[in-house]
């Protein structure tokens, strides 16, 4: 029986509320903290934030698959929105770039994550960061507010990616831009992985084809679409073995299917056709 969009959202909400209480070591040894930990590797998806200004170890749950704030071209005074902000990791890095004259808004739909993020902000005594409860398919921000939108390994967890991308377009100012790190595919995943809810929460089975992802961005009206970084994700044998037989793993490894982390930049046009919602 196919899982509905609402069921998938509830699955993700429950899983990431649990992750908010896990230690970082467990998260980095799994797929987006999904709970299917590997003994083969320590770091499956996440990149190292430690050298970035504004980095706060308490906010780093190792749930990302890139460094979008490194590539986001954030300037002093900018208003930045982070979609799926978790414990606030990218928000605090963005705040170091916007400075005191800017504003950072984190959006998440896990109360446990929001509580953790707000506590982290209080410890840092930052008064121009706020964390809002919301579904990123309907971002709780007015149109044309953001100079920059960032997101790290979140869109693959959303059933309706087209709606999220349209929402990003809506909340950006004309000439505003986004930098998003996410998981995409080149080729088809085995059915057992595609249909496994745990691997959806683990950022794998919710990913779409790379070309489809880029086309959704183009069709939403964005321009200057650029892949800023790309790396291949190798899912360890001991995680795959929880879902596939030995023969199925070998077939998958030899299929040519690639799982990638990509960081994508795109800009909202500065002037659009009437009725487009841009100007």
Outline the fold blueprint:
Elements: H1 5-19, H2 24-28, H3 68-71, E1 79-83, H4 89-98, E2 103-108, H5 111-124, E3 129-133, E4 146-152, H6 161-171, E5 172-186, H7 191-194, H8 197-201, E6 208-209, H9 210-219, E7 223-232, H10 237-240, H11 246-253, E8 258-267
Parallel strand pairs: 1-2, 1-4, 2-3, 4-5, 5-6
Antiparallel strand pairs: 5-8, 7-8
Radius of gyration: 18 Å
Compute the number of strand runs.
Answer: 8
User: CATH topology, anyone?
Assistant: Rossmann fold
Mean pLDDT: 85
Largest sheet features? 8 strands, mixed
User: Shape from CA axes?
Assistant: globular
N→C terminal distance: 43 Å
| CATH homology-level superfamily | Vaccinia Virus protein VP39
Q: So what's the CATH class? A: Alpha Beta
How would you characterize the overall build of this protein?
The chain has 279 residues and is of the alpha/beta class. The protein has one domain: Vaccinia Virus protein VP39 (Rossmann fold). It is built from eleven helices and eight strands. It has helices spanning 5-19, 24-28, 68-71, 89-98, 111-124, 161-171, 191-194, 197-201, 210-219, 237-240, 246-253, and strands at residues 79-83, 103-108, 129-133, 146-152, 172-186, 208-209, 223-232, 258-267. Helix 6 (161-171) links the parallel strand 4 (146-152) and strand 5 (172-186).
